[in-house]
Amino acid sequence: MSMSAPEALRLAPLDLFIDPLLSFQDARLRDMLAYWERQRGGKPCPARADVSPADIVSHLPSVFLVDAEPPALSLSNFRVRLMGTALNELFARDFTGRTLEGDIAEKPAAAIAKVLGVVCQLRRPLRVYGAAVFSPSGPATEIEAVLLPLSAGAGVDMVLGELVKRASA
Predict the structure, then answer these.
(1) What is the pTM of this model?
(2) Which domain holds residue 59?
(3) What is the CATH number of the domain that holds 108?
(4) Cβ atoms within 10 A of the Cβ of 67, count?
(5) CA–CA separation, 3 vs 8, rounded Å?
(6) Model pLDDT for residues 29-62, shown as the tens digit of each residue
(7) Total domain count, the chain
């Protein structure tokens, strides 16, 4: 994969990569990161209350919001609060109100929990990209995503994300 920089880390067993350098290719994700930066002001991260759906209307179909319960290390510590309509379509189901435990195969679910946990522990945005299979009979889809920590207090209590399908080369 040509966009795999040496700094990127593979999110095994998935064909996804973590890019801590935030080298976004999709302008929508750069816009979402810029919005997050504006909303945080001088704080390490903005709170959920700092993020207004009215400010990000064009992003809403591909946005997700995940509650993170300390210690934010296992799948049971993450519950989907919101999932945009484009994501419901991509996953062929709606995870709103559910943990990912039991709804996704164990190894990919553990990898997802790991990357959400990294965002919570480091309190910084991450870029994820690569190919993912979203439904049992579906094809691999090239995606790119941004994961953004939100904090109302000492620790990260939510992860705001946007996941987009990458245009075919």
Answers:
(1) 0.89
(2) 9-165
(3) 3.30.450.20
(4) 17
(5) 9
(6) 999 999 999 999 989 999 999 999 999 999 999 9
(7) 1
